[in-house]
Structure formats: structure tokens, C-alpha cells
Design goal:
The protein is an alpha+beta fold and 203 residues long. It has helices spanning 23-38, 107-116, 129-135, 151-161, 164-168, 188-202, and strands at 11-16, 43-44, 50-51, 53-57, 64-67, 82-89, 94-99, 122-127, 141-142, 171-174, 180-185. The chain has a single domain (11-202), classed as L-fuculose-1-phosphate Aldolase (3-Layer(aba) Sandwich). The chain starts with 10 loop residues before the first strand and ends with a helix.
Length: 203
């Protein structure tokens, strides 16, 4: 466990396996991730630490496929770069998963959004300084005291989205996670459309 940005802060029960992601989910995730990568919303900083992640729900279940830890720097991902998150416990700050790579450090935030709404099937977490500054406190925003990858952040997201007006905006800005913004939707196309719509509106 470490406090350095980009690293997992929750207790992880992970089983290493061969790639698990279905072809349809893989193709859709990579298509949207490439768009976001080209807009510098997913990538890596000057120190090589990755940022941004993207996930889709495993149809008909609480599980979800998400980009793996430390994959932000890769322009194109292979099946080996995705993990299946199989469960989480917010109170214990614990998460379980399986696949060829460990799940993203922001998996807890994705998990709580999927748990809140069965109709949400995709979550996008991006980093973009100017975009973040423009949206900060203009849309649902978590407190500065809630740090990335913590149960406090997940709990604050849960509280925000319990308000129907906040939920309808399909966006959460993370004040305690500089440059971090989450978008979500009924599928990846909707989540991506919200991302680009807000981006075009404020920049």
C-alpha cells in the first residue's frame, strides 16, 4: 500500500488468470479509450505514472471489466491489459478481481457507481487539468478531503449520486483528486457522449 498517485490503496484479493474479457467488450472499450487517449484524458505523466481508466459492466451481474493498473501509458491495449472485478466491500476497503493484470487503483469508485444503479453499464474516469478546473463545483463535486482510491472517495460519490438531480448529470468531479473527473452512462457510447459533450461545452 502506498500514498503515491497511481497506486492501489485498497486491500486486493486478485487471482492471476489468462485474459477473460469478451471480444465485444474489448473492442468497445479500446475504441473509446483510444478517443480519450488522443484527447490526453487517459495516458501517463512525465514520470510515467498512468492516469485515467475505463470500465464496462459484465452484463446481468455486479461484476465489471476495467483497464488494469499501470496501463495508462499504453497507446493501444491488448486483452491482457483488462481485469474483471468480481466484488468489493466498501466498509473493509477491499476489492476482489481476476485476470492477467491487477485492476486500476480507481476500481473502488467504479464499483460504487455500478452498485448504486443497475442501469449504469459503463464508467469513464479521465484526467484533464483545464477540463477539471472548468467543471469544479459547477457540477456534482466530491470534497477536497476525499482522496483518490479511498473508501472516503467512494462514499462521497455514493452520497452525491443519491440525489436524483446530481445523478442525472452523469458526471462527478473529484476535488481531492486533482484533474480527476468521472462520467457514466447506460453504456459506453452514452458515457463517452457525456464526456465529449461536457468537454465541448466548457472548452
Amino acid at each position: 500500500m502506498t500514498e503515491q498517485e497511481g497506486y492501489i490503496k485498497f486491500t486486493l484479493d486478485w487471482q492471476e488468470t489468462d485474459p477473460l474479457i469478451p471480444v465485444e467488450a474489448f473492442v468497445k472499450l479500446n475504441a473509446w479509450r483510444e478517443i480519450l487517449y488522443n484527447l490526453d484524458m487517459i495516458g501517463a505523466d512525465s514520470q510515467g505514472i498512468g492516469f485515467g481508466n475505463i470500465s464496462v459492466r459484465d452484463p446481468g451481474s455486479p461484476r465489471f471489466y476495467i483497464t488494469g493498473s499501470a496501463t495508462g501509458k499504453e497507446r493501444i491495449l491488448g486483452e491482457e491489459h483488462y481485469c474483471l472485478v468480481t466484488g468489493f466491500d466498501l466498509e473493509r476497503n477491499a476489492l476482489s478481481g481476476e485476470g492477467p493484470v491487477k485492476p486500476s487503483a480507481e476500481s473502488m469508485s467504479h464499483a460504487v457507481i455500478y452498485a448504486i444503479d443497475p442501469g449504469t453499464n459503463a464508467v469513464i474516469h479521465i484526467h484533464h487539468k483545464l477540463f477539471w478546473e472548468k467543471l469544479l463545483y459547477q457540477v456534482p463535486t466530491t470534497p477536497e478531503t476525499a482522496e483518490y482510491g479511498t473508501p472516503e472517495m467512494a462514499e462521497e460519490i455514493k452520497i452525491l449520486l443519491a440525489n436524483p438531480d446530481n445523478f442525472a448529470k452523469r458526471v462527478v468531479v473529484m476535488a481531492g483528486h486533482p484533474d480527476g473527473i468521472i462520467f457514466f452512462g447506460k453504456d459506453l457510447d452514452e458515457a463517452g457522449a457525456y464526456t465529449l459533450s461536457y468537454f465541448n461545452e466548457v472548452l
